[in-house]
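Ticket #457: bound-state structure for magnesium ion.
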Amino acid sequence: MAQELIISISGMRGIIGENMFPETAAEYGAAFGTFLKRSQSGKRPVVAIGRDSRPSGSMIFCAVASGLASVGVDVIDLGICTTPGVGVMLRHLECSGGVVITASHNPLPYNGIKFLLGNGIAPPKPMAESIRSLYFDKQFDRVNSVDCGKVSANEGAAAVHLEKVLSIINPSQIAAKKFKVVLDSVNGAGGPVGLELLDKLGCVVTPVNTEPTGLFAHGAEPTEQNLVSLSEQVRQAKADIGFAQDPDADRLALVDEKGRYIGEEFTLALVARYMFDRNPGGAAAANLSTSRMIDDIAAKAGGKVIRTAVGEANVAEAMVKNKCMIGGEGNGGVIDLRVGPIRDSLVGMALILQLMAQTGQTLSQLADAVGGYAMYKTKYTANGEQAARIIEKARRIYPDAQVNTSDGCRFDFADGWLHIRTSNTEPIMRVILETKDPAAAKRYLETIESLCRDVLK
Ligand code: MG
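RESOLUTION: The complex was predicted; output attached.
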């Protein structure tokens, strides 16, 4: 059976030619345009649109742009552009909103549409629900011929984005190190701008899959199994570091100078290490499923970490509210508000290289100094009510744990933590556990397993 088109609060995602068509995309664009018009009465909205490198991107762009124009919204076409690049441009051009056409790390047959408000952050849940209702109720404020939106192009995203990223580091300090870097962009949108950044930082680069063809050379998610070839290339090139971006370049995974995949959790942790070194009393934000490494780093510096529900917009909002100097998610997504409230692999690369330049340490030394944890992830088929019962039972078993219930329940113990949450898009309950001691991990996992057997039998 064909999969259903997913229209959740985080946007639309589907398979091109199977459940995602230009008609669908145009109506989704018209819904977003109608929402923007109604929420800023009188002002003619302008929306910037960027897309990752998937071959279906230009078709979906034309459809979304025509949907927006049909309700009287002007469109700026940013062409192939990273997700953080769209965020930077829509603020630079003072747009009312932005659209990113990407299915992120999903395979080539997929594409997706995500909306951003004028502040560069995804619409919060109530607004996302209104856009969804407008789409399903087909309530579009269509306009006549004279008032139709106009579409223009702007090719300046990479330059504006790079200028912002370069402004948060010391490029000449990095350039003096002449770092050898392997960059794997999986032929997504991040290749050209990523190479330009590394060039400006004086790095000697081995480019891998940096052509934005959208024909992904390996699995698009920057996981260990998908980056075996990157590890090999780092060893062969005797490089200092390997960077891997996902197709829309908001996530960044790291490979150390030994060719060891050290993964995505370390991206935020090491960037946080740099920021807390600079500003020990500062604040950081991370979602509840992110490694405790960032808490260890903050505690050592005398700073603090604000934990949020999973989802980029939740982290970004907490960062703005609490004036956080850094934030993000354990999937390699780093947010620095000086560049924009969006996860940004270019920010990640720049700050990691700055940390290496400043400390004079290798990536493996830096990673080993903050690491030592192991993370375990499992999932169960469970609905919200079943998940709530499992959480309730777990709370009785662990009465002394510190709990955070802003997204499912996170239990913090002296020797690790456990996060139980349900998915927003499917009837799945995720369990994420992190400890340093494998024996403790086994005990926690067995306990949860037995609770699940009990409730889900
Ligand atoms: Mg992504």
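RESOLUTION NOTES: The mean pLDDT is 95.
TICKET STATUS: resolved
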